[in-house]
Amino acid sequence: MTEHTSPENDRVPESAREDAVPAQFRLAPRFGRVVGTGVVLGFIAGALASLILPNTTGVGTFTVALLVGAGFALLGAVIAGLIAVSLDRGTASRHKAAKQAHGTEGSSGADAATGDA
Q1: What residues does each domain of the chain span?
Q2: In the Cβ-directed half-sphere of 41, how many Cα atoms lie within 13 Å?
Q3: Residues of the chain with pLDDT > 90: what percent?
Q4: Which of 8, 55, 73, 91 could join 43 via S-S bond, C-beta 3.0 to 4.6 A?
């Protein structure tokens, strides 16, 4: 069973308000994770492609799968890095648009209140 709290207990002490620092957050992608995902997916795609397609070399299927997988992993890392950079660039414009929309709503309400008075 949950306990109900009274509004008096939810109040923030004045000393905590003075010490509080406004927080800013950024919705940026985690580059390491995005690139790592690209590497893993690229390696899997390359290894599967080399295992499925016919092998005409004498070095062995496993070696060819490793080499082609490594090449595709590099390609996957580059593509994932480009995607991460494009997402990061879009973050600033989305954040700026959200700030403007938030600011516009507040000022339009104030303008409407002053216009009617």
Answers
A1: 29-103
A2: 12
A3: 34
A4: 73
What are the pLDDT digits (tens) for 23-33? 767 677 889 99
- Regarding pTM above 0.85, the answer is no
State how far the Cα of 38 lies from the Cα of 19, in Å rounded to an integer: 43
The C-alpha angle with vertex 16 and arms to 13 and 17, in degrees rounded to 5, equals: 90
Q: Which residues does 71 contact at the CB level (< 8 Å), separation at least 6? A: 46
Q: Give the C-alpha separation, 76 to 38, whole Å.
A: 5
